[in-house]
Amino acid sequence: MSETRSYPLNAWYAAAWDTDIGKTLLARTICDTAVVLYRRRDGSVAALEDACWHRQAPLSMGRLDGDNVVCGYHGLVFNGDGRCVRMPSQETLNPSACVRSFPVVERHRHIWLWMGDPALADPSRVPDLHWNDDPAWAGDGRTIHAKCNYRLVVDNLMDLTHETFVHGSSLGNDAIAEAAFESTHNERYAYITRWMKNIDPPPFWASQLGKPGKVDRWQIIRFEPPGTVTIDVGVAPVGTGAPEGDRGAGVNGFVLNTMTPETESTTHYFWNFCRGYRLGEQRLTNEIRDAITRVFGEDELMFAAQQKGIERNPHRGFNNLNIDAGSLWARRLIQQMVEAERPRSRLAAE
Amino acid sequence: MSETRSYPLNAWYAAAWDTDIGKTLLARTICDTAVVLYRRRDGSVAALEDACWHRQAPLSMGRLDGDNVVCGYHGLVFNGDGRCVRMPSQETLNPSACVRSFPVVERHRHIWLWMGDPALADPSRVPDLHWNDDPAWAGDGRTIHAKCNYRLVVDNLMDLTHETFVHGSSLGNDAIAEAAFESTHNERYAYITRWMKNIDPPPFWASQLGKPGKVDRWQIIRFEPPGTVTIDVGVAPVGTGAPEGDRGAGVNGFVLNTMTPETESTTHYFWNFCRGYRLGEQRLTNEIRDAITRVFGEDELMFAAQQKGIERNPHRGFNNLNIDAGSLWARRLIQQMVEAERPRSRLAAE
Amino acid sequence: MSETRSYPLNAWYAAAWDTDIGKTLLARTICDTAVVLYRRRDGSVAALEDACWHRQAPLSMGRLDGDNVVCGYHGLVFNGDGRCVRMPSQETLNPSACVRSFPVVERHRHIWLWMGDPALADPSRVPDLHWNDDPAWAGDGRTIHAKCNYRLVVDNLMDLTHETFVHGSSLGNDAIAEAAFESTHNERYAYITRWMKNIDPPPFWASQLGKPGKVDRWQIIRFEPPGTVTIDVGVAPVGTGAPEGDRGAGVNGFVLNTMTPETESTTHYFWNFCRGYRLGEQRLTNEIRDAITRVFGEDELMFAAQQKGIERNPHRGFNNLNIDAGSLWARRLIQQMVEAERPRSRLAAE
User: Fold this and answer.
1) Are B10 and B120 in contact (CB under 8 A)?
2) What phi and psi values does residue A330 have, to the nearest 5 degrees?
């Protein structure tokens, strides 16, 4: 597995939305590992490997007893740290009896798990998705179970020229594929910035802006490895100064995406669209969420087809164009994290 | 295959209930081998490999002609010993033309096949399930297609503390997990004996006994390798002498189980519940059979989940508790049979 | 793959019926390769590998723009020769940007692809199925998606004794399995010729002939590697001279079959039945087509069962009878083609 693993383990991954987790047992596979998640009575979230120490029965088939999980097969009881605290028919507890527990942080409406070395689990490294619970922004999202490696979703989001071809009836138009863009990066993020000036807005944005005429449109994509992409998007009427920094006459949103490997070929893809205008309109929230659900459905079909093509020809690889600058930087940042986890001896042997 | 095979071949395996086999062709996979079964005109059962010598067409897609099987593709005819007795368009029969036949014994309501060396197929080694057709006992059973290795079913039956956690609403209560038990064995069998004295009976047994008050309850589990488990179960009112040998005031049954590997990860699991009381009541027979079908359905879910967990982490292994004494002995007896079939040279190399 | 490949690549394979291909994109897997097919405006057929050079998205998910294919993901445009002629956001085209194109010949109602070295793609080597579009013959056929290696279908057609056992109610009777046959071959074809003289016709042929009494029946099977089998079939009243060459009093048809590997274990099987009598009767065409569809449905079940048996015991192999003379010659001709494509060094090492 480690030879071909495409994702780092020493990273925070979104395992769920905050509202997905309650005082019941939820089974979810994260990074090829079966995990069971639940909330303790104090509201904190516990994440344990979903396989009993005794006979590998899934703990998620058992039940919660207060803050502890009771295995549904032979009744072993584990606390939220994974330690076995009761064994029926045993006078003494085997001190080695435990299941793996994973560091958890709840932040920005997601439950984040650290799948690697717990000693390295620094909460300050949780990816930045602060718009998700910032009252200055409103929106709603969904979870997509994408039938592809998580990097194909990253590629998709780092090159929005695909909107012209995949989403031509909603978000895309020729302007995106024709517009120049700028690729930059620093130690933490990689960016693609694209300004489409003095264009006709595509249907979605024309409707959001609610004003006739040409617009300046922007897409400022930010990648944070291993799997988080935020996209600052919007339009403003031409001549109102958006490219120079004054977006006041326009409309602005953030497409927030974080992708978590379920397996090498499937992905938990959590997205949200937060807007900075008409915050109180729940109906608009629902309309936008449903419209994006339809648009992203077009991507899902492509993800599955592309993954199937790759599995058919695993050694062929990709060819790159100018438009892939963002994807190339994203994959380079991912690769650095993966390589940092390899045993030194293996690196030396290569 | 032989490296990882978990079952011995030199053993009798139940392939079917007696009533499953008639004068038609039945296809069934036993120990990873496709078999076709049928009755000859004299009532005896024939078992052949289900692949024609000529082009590997399944013989079960053909038809019976008297005691012979006619292949449904090109008409080769095989007798119940597997010898080809007719080849269309051939003047002479190829003397090597045959399919493998398996030794068969019909006993205790099962059709038993010997999948290993026919020279070793000693009918006296058929596992003892005599209650199945003993007029002193009445009952009815079913076949479960369990989605797990057959040893997981053995484990399940050798440790009945799981009743407390899996079957809490019917058979289980805390008394089982708390009661002491005795583990013994001899050359042929491994036993677990558990007496729960002066307890409240669980719902099923309260109903069977039909008398109020505390009971002494017993579970005497007997394992016969590779896959047969009989369980002597019952309750008697406290103080009527059951622990000392007088069960006359109580009710007694036998849970009869025999597990046959279909593949390494699936099992034909034949069970019957025979009771020694109210023998003539067909309605009671049906009620008990249906109740146990429901109870064993709870185990089926666990079997499949456990198997999936093992396949996800094949090298992790199990950890053992006191309650696993019976399972450990059962696996040891199985392992002896498997190792006895390995080539000597391979053993030496290990 | 090449170690175990059962089919030659330097051969013409039917990919479709002529009417399957229009001015839309059709995805089909041929010889384990994903292909997209379409017609150019001049009616000629283009066949490209169904994976974009850029990111392996299936081109069949894109759209046609005149004679070119536009990838549905990022808009790269390929012409019918596979050359990329447009890349959005690129000022210059990468000269190496292309997808594989396959030589195509449209002949005898089929679209034939050459999956090997294009330099060897000689149109004179397209298999002979001229009856398909000869006005002296009338008929209609279908495509079967057979769940087996293509050679199992060849085997089936080269030995029609199976009609006795698989199709006893329509085409077969004991006469076929009992009749002598002659096996011949030349550099291009292998033949099996079988005359059944003075027999009762089976139901299908009795109905076609429409005359009472005994008949002479013929089956003259011709194999052209790697996957084409034509069968000259018919009956004539006894004594009217058919065996001597005068078929004027009888009825004659050709069962035309060409099998194309989709994968090693699945086959595109195109068949047609052309008759030389009652040419103008469309109703008869439909009746025969539907009758044969039912008959071949019986073979499909056997193909899938046989393939499954082979996959269960891949090293067991087949045993051969007199009736397999045609199949043996067919496989020998196939094997010659496959071996001619192996690298010399590998042959030397064997």
Assistant:
1) yes
2) -60, -50
CATH match of A130-340 with 3.40.50.720? no
From the CA of C173, how many Å to the nearest CA of chain A? 45
Among the residue ranges A106-110, B143-147, C160-164, C277-281, the one predicted with the least confidence is: C160-164
What ipTM was estimated for this complex? 0.90
Instruction: Tell me the backbone φ, ψ of residue A58, rounded to 5 degrees.
Output: -65, 125
Structure tokens at A278: 């008409």
Pick among B153, B312, B331 to test the A interface (most A CBs inside 10 A): B312
Q: In what order do the strands lie in the sheet with B110-114?
A: B12-17, B110-114, B104-107
Q: Does domain B131-340 correspond to CATH entry 3.40.30.10?
A: no
What is the pairing mode between strands B228-237 and B12-17? unpaired
| CB–CB contact C88 A319 (8 Å) | no
CB neighbour burial string for B280-317, b if at least 16 within 10 angstroms, e if fewer: eeeebbeebbebbeebbebbbebbbbbbbbbeeeeeee
Distance CA C113, CA C154 (A): 19
Query: CB-based burial of residue C346 (10 Å sphere; 0-12 exposed, 13-18 middle, 19+ buried)?
Result: exposed
Whole-number Cα distances in Å, A86 to A50, A281, B102, C292: 17, 51, 49, 69
Classify domain B12-125 at the CATH topology level.
Rieske Iron-sulfur Protein (2.102.10)
- Tell me the domain boundaries of chain A: 12-125, 130-340
Average pLDDT over every residue of B308-318: 90
pLDDT in tens, A90-114: 888 888 899 999 999 999 999 999 9
> Which of the residues A153, A158, A162 would you substitute to probe the C interface, choosing the one with the greatest number of C C-beta atoms within 10 Å?
A162
Task: Dump pLDDT digits (tens) for C12-39.
Answer: 999 999 999 999 999 999 999 999 999 9
pLDDT at residue B2 in the model: 40
Contact C306 B90 (CB under 8 A): no
CB contact under 8 A, C321 and B74: yes
B32 backbone φψ class: left, alpha, beta (φ>0; ψ -120 to 50): left
Backbone dihedral region for residue A54 (phi beyond 0: left; psi -120 to 50: alpha; all else: beta): alpha
Q: Which residues of C touch B73 (CB under 8 A)?
A: 162, 165-166, 302, 306
Contact A312, C49 (CB under 8 A): no
CB-neighbour burial class of residue C297 (10 A; exposed 0-12, middle 13-18, buried 19+): exposed
Burial class (CB in 10 A: 0-12, 13-18, 19+), A193: middle
Identify the weakest region by mean pLDDT among A262-276, B302-316, C40-54, C84-98.
C84-98
Is there a contact between B233 and B139 (Cβ–Cβ < 8 Å)? no
For residue range A278-333, list pLDDT tens digits in order.
999 999 999 999 999 999 999 999 999 999 999 998 888 899 988 899 999 999 99
- For the cut 60, the answer to whether the pLDDT of residue B251 exceeds it is yes
Alpha-carbon distance of B115 to C313, in angstroms, equals: 16
Write out pLDDT tens, residues C198-210.
999 998 999 999 9
Contact criterion met (CB < 8 Å) for A322 and C90: yes
The gap from C-alpha B173 to its chain's centroid, in whole angstroms, comes to: 26
